[in-house]
Amino acid sequence: MYVEIDNESKKWIEAKGNQLTVKILETKTCCAPGVQEVVAVPGKPKTTDQFTELNVEDLSIYVQKILCNKEKLTLKLSGISFLKTIAAKLQ
User: In the beta sheet, which residues pair with residue 25?
Assistant: First the structure.
């Protein structure tokens, strides 16, 4: 899997401890179908057995194994000030 990351995103991840977890977040509701979204959160997952660790430019990026069949992961910083977050896009 190829990981595309810009300098601003890399600096943000470094400031958060050099670790990032990319996983599927699934929401379930009683009256509507569930929604799945790919999210990126700072830090290492609690259990790493369902994740593949990728080392990219001195960063540890943990990608959920079910997402590893994609060719490219793009990480981009979005938001302002203290509300900044990383957006993950799979292709």
Answer: 37
Are residues 66 and 77 in contact, defined by beta-carbon separation less than 8 angstroms? no
Q: Other C-beta atoms within 10 Å of 61: how many?
A: 24
Q: What is the pLDDT along the chain (91 residues), one digit of tens a residue?
A: 999 999 999 999 999 999 999 999 887 777 777 778 899 999 999 999 999 999 999 999 999 999 988 899 999 999 988 899 999 999 9
CA angle 40–45–51, rounded 5-degree value: 85
Per the rule left: phi > 0, alpha: psi between -120 and 50, beta: everything else, 57 is left
